[in-house]
């Protein structure tokens, strides 16, 4: 395999911006089965339950990746939400407008995908290289239709 070294040039940071303290924090996912979605993220992805609380007739929680305290998935569970489409193909999932996925960075896509499959997770296709952004990518879905991207740096 040929060595690929792509440098992505970011614009200068804007420390003078009124929004200069803005950081990513969490993504929220909606599911009817609160206990089921929390259990899935814990068992399939080893996420940690950080906090739980009620909100009206819903139960909410923050779940964090096994070794990351800076990003959470917020679960909004209960009630009767409308179902998500059940995608089996990444290209099909790109058709509707609006929210598409959130991304988790990993060191080795192929090892991570192999472990997800071993745990019975629905992976959409095979991992693929995307040299334009110097990443290797893969996509999978939780059982409630929420798409998740995995990304690692191309070597």
From TrEMBL:
Gene3D superfamilies: 2,3-Dihydroxybiphenyl 1,2-Dioxygenase, domain 1
GO BP, sorted A to Z: L-methylmalonyl-CoA metabolic process
Keywords: Metal-binding
SUPFAM superfamilies registered for this protein in UniProt: Glyoxalase/Bleomycin resistance protein/Dihydroxybiphenyl dioxygenase (SSF54593)
Tree of life domain: Bacteria
Residue ranges of domain VOC in the record: 23-153
GO terms, molecular function: metal ion binding; methylmalonyl-CoA epimerase activity
One matching Pfam family: Glyoxalase
Protein name: VOC family protein
Taxonomy of the source species: Bacteria, Pseudomonadati, Bacteroidota, Cytophagia, Cytophagales
């Amino acid at each position: 395999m040929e060595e690929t070294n792509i440098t992505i040039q970011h614009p200068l940071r804007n420390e003078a911006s009124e929004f200069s303290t803005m950081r990513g924090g969490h993504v929220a996912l909606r599911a009817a089965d609160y206990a089921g979605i929390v259990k899935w993220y814990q068992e399939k992805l080893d996420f940690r339950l950080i906090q739980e609380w009620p909100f009206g007739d819903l139960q909410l929680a923050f779940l964090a990746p096994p070794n990351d305290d800076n990003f959470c998935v917020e679960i909004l569970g209960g009630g009767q939400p409308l179902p998500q489409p059940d995608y089996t193909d990444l290209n099909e999932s790109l058709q509707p407008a609006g929210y598409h996925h959130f991304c988790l960075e990993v060191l080795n896509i192929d090892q991570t995908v192999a472990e997800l499959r071993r745990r019975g997770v629905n992976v959409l296709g095979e991992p693929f290289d995307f040299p334009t952004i110097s990443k290797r990518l893969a996509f999978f879905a939780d059982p409630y239709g929420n798409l998740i991207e995995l990304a690692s740096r191309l070597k």
